[in-house]
Design brief:
Elements: H1 15-27, H2 35-46, H3 56-64, H4 68-83, H5 90-97
Length: 98
């Protein structure tokens, strides 16, 4: 049984790249994004299907290629999933329009 993501093995090695990307987020006004949230985005969305023979430089390259807009889009969708919001619910739609 698999626990965690296959790339979790590389997480400590790519920490400087994660910190650099988070610095970029902060420069653009997104101060509250954490390393854990960014890593969650990468493992759940960007690396949904991990490569077998991935190289460290490729992981760093993919971290540095993350666009703030991609992450914000993902975080927004995840937030809607967590609230139990449903577009087919009349009450939820009314709350959204307030």
């Amino acid at each position: 049984m698999k626990i965690g993501h296959e790339y979790d093995y590389f997480r400590t090695e790519v920490k400087p790249a994660l910190e650099s990307k988070l610095d970029e987020f902060r420069l653009l006004g997104y101060e509250k994004v954490t390393e854990q949230e960014l890593w969650g985005y990468l493992t759940k969305k960007k690396w949904k299907k991990p490569s077998e023979n991935i190289r460290l430089f490729k992981i760093v390259e993919e971290i540095m290629a993350v666009k703030v807009s991609e992450y914000i889009h993902y975080a927004t969708i995840e937030a809607f999933k967590g609230t139990g919001f449903a577009f087919d619910s009349e009450e939820d739609r009314r709350q959204l329009l307030k």
